[in-house]
Amino acid sequence: MTIVKDRLKSATAAPTRAARLNPLIVLVVGAAIIVALTYTLPPFRTYQLATVGAYLCVTAGLTVLTGLNGQLSLGHGALMATGAYTLALWQNKFNLLAVGIVVAILVTTAVGAVIGLAAARLRGPYLAGLTLAVAVVVPSITSTFDETFNSDQGLSVILNPPPESMTVEQWQAWLCWGAALITVFALTILTRGRFGRDMRAVRDDETAARLAGISVARTQVSAFVVSAACAGLAGALFAVIAQSVSPGAFPLTLSLFLLMAIVIGGLGRLTGALIGALLLVALPAIAHEIGESAGSQRLEGNLALTFFGVVLVVVMLAAPGGLASLRIPFRRFRTKKH
Questions:
Q1: Residue 85: how many CB atoms within 10 A of its CB?
Q2: Which of 76, 142, 169, 204 has the fewest C-beta atoms under 10 angstroms from its C-beta?
Q3: What does the alpha-carbon distance between residue 67 and residue 208 come to, in Å, rounded to a whole number?
Q4: Closest residue by Cα to residue 277 from 245, 219, 226, 324
Q5: CA-wise closest residue to 214 among 8, 2, 71
Q6: Cα torsion for 88, 89, 93, 97, to the nearest 10°?
Q7: What are the tens digits of pLDDT across the range 277-301?
Q8: Mean pLDDT of all residues in the chain?
Q9: From CA 187, how far away is CA 23, in angstroms rounded?
Q10: Which domain holds residue 139?
Q11: Are 212 and 5 in contact (CB under 8 A)?
Q12: What is the mean pLDDT of residues 330-335?
């Protein structure tokens, strides 16, 4: 029993100094920075900023699931598609955006609960295979029920125009980053409490966690549900940004990119989720520019995956804990006292 307690203690160790930052202060400072950026960046960069915020919602949830709970998911792109299509169907019928986002989150949460119940019984490659099957099945549903989802052409999203005092890109950035900051704030509070300690314990040693009175299955299902809700929110935001949804916007490679992004950023760290979200926008943008200059769309798609692969290998060799684990040695820059 002593061994069990020692393992559980190491799994639930106190967070680092960086993690003890007041999340409310981070929320306020982050909001102020985003507002300032939306008034200084050009429209296209503001649009990219909004896209980073949407990605942050899903990468934050995925890094909690994989990094803190140890569950591998290759189907979060499909969960994003669920949220996006739900919002599109809702908006086209009721045109109530705030309610539509909540409905999209609830529907995706329900789907995530079903997947999570099955995932709690699986480990390793079997879990990856299940989530991979979800990523393959969900896009095919749009072709099967083409009268509802309009097959490969997708659905347009009806949106009311933004207030006259701001541009469309500013409104998108405020919406996406407002949702992203609230998501990060909620996940920070959640992972610092008992639920976070339970997830770490289950990740490190399921037997030790079970002997300590933690329900392993319930913790794993709850982690998947939380992560699915974040993915549904991200999908709804992407539907708002693009003002349309289609199966092509949520390919299988999206799930792979999401997983590589959080690994490069740093598993289990919300700062790593932010780095991953930035990479998800920056690397495809670089690949797009190179593909345009070469006049090849096929090259563009291959370059994005190549960039992620190269960055992943380099980061894993230089910083196995991800970019968020890097620490700048400030001491060497300090002036020596005489």
A1: 27
A2: 204
A3: 18
A4: 324
A5: 8
A6: -40
A7: 999 999 888 888 887 776 666 666 6
A8: 86
A9: 10
A10: 2-250
A11: yes
A12: 42
Does 322 reside within a domain? Answer: no
Q: How many CB atoms lie within 10 A of CB 242?
A: 18
Residue where the block lists tokens 């949702």: 179
216-242 vs 194-204: helix crossing angle, rounded to 10: 110
Q: What is the reported pTM? A: 0.89
Residue 215 lies in a domain: yes
Helix (H) or strand (E) holding 9: helix 2-11
Cα-flanking dihedrals φ and ψ of residue 245, to 5°?
-135, 145
pLDDT in tens, 217-258: 999 999 999 999 999 999 999 999 999 999 888 988 899 999
245 strand-pairing partners: 155
Bridging pattern class, strands 244-245 and 155-156: antiparallel
Domains in the chain, number: 1
Residue 139 lies in a domain: yes
Distance separating alpha carbons of residues 300 and 317, to the nearest angstrom: 26
Rounded Cα distance between 91 and 78, Å, is 20
Query: Could you tell me if residue 24 is inside a domain?
Result: yes
Q: How many Å apart are CA 297 and CA 287, to the nearest integer? A: 10
Distance between CA atoms of residues 81 and 152, nearest Å: 13
Q: How far apart are CA 325 and CA 12, in angstroms?
A: 19
